Amino acid sequence: MGNSADHDNRWVGWNCPATDEICVNVDGSSRGYPSEAGFDGVLRDSYGTWLGGFYGSIGNATNMVAELSAIFFGLISAWERGHKCIVLCSDSQEAIHLVRDGHFVVYPHANLLGDILAMLHWDWHVKIIHCLREGNQVVNRLAKMSSHSSTSF
C-alpha cells in the first residue's frame, strides 16, 4: 500500500462576470530575462461573448514588464470600448500585488505602474483578480505567440 492523500478536485476554467460587468483576461510573456516579450488580452461579456481582443510585442523586456503591459492595454481596450464595470483577470500574482499595493516609487518600471494606478481612478469600476493559468489559457497561449510578433492591435 502506498501513501494516500486527500486531493481536492476543483473546476478550473473561465469565470463569467456579473451581468453588468465585462471580463478582461490578460497575460504577458517573455522568452527570457529579458528577451522578446509580448502581451495580449480578450474582452468578454457575462455570457462569454467575444467583445474584442488585443496583443502586442514590446521588444526585449522582462516577464513583469510584459504582465504590466497586458494589464495596461487591457484597461485601455476596455475604456476605449466604453465599458465602465470591469473584472480584469491576470495569472500574475506579482503584477496584481504591485497594482493593488501601489508601491511603485522604487520599482524599475514606475512609469508603467503609475499609469495603471492613474487609470484605476478614472470614472469606472475595476476589480483586478488573480486567476489560475489553467483558467487563462486563451490569453496564455496568445501571449507566447505575441512575443514572436512584430505587430500589435
Describe the overall structure.
- The protein contains four helices and five strands, in the order βββαβααβα.
- Strands 3-2-1-4-5 form a five-stranded mixed sheet, with helices on both faces.
- The protein has helices at residues 63-80, 93-101, 110-119, 137-146, and strands at residues 22-30, 35-44, 50-61, 85-90, 125-130.
- Helix 1 (63-80) packs parallel to helix 3 (110-119).
- The termini are far apart.
- It is of the alpha/beta class and 153 residues long.
- The model has no long low-confidence stretch (mean pLDDT 81).
What's the gist of this structure?
The chain is an alpha/beta fold.
Please describe the structure with a list of short key phrases separated by commas or semicolons:
5-stranded mixed beta sheet, 31% helix, 28% strand, alpha/beta, 4 helices, RNaseH_sf, RNaseH_domain, single chain, 153 residues, RNase H type-1 domain-containing protein, RNase_H-like_dom_plant, 5 strands
Topology, please?
Blueprint: E1 22-30, E2 35-44, E3 50-61, H1 63-80, E4 85-90, H2 93-101, H3 110-119, E5 125-130, H4 137-146
Parallel strand pairs: 1-4, 4-5
Antiparallel strand pairs: 1-2, 2-3
Helix pairs in contact: 1-3
How many DSSP helices? 4
Secondary-structure element order, as H and E?
EEEHEHHEH
Strand tally: 5
Query: What does the radius of gyration come to?
Result: 16 Å
Give the fraction of residues assigned to helices: 25-40%
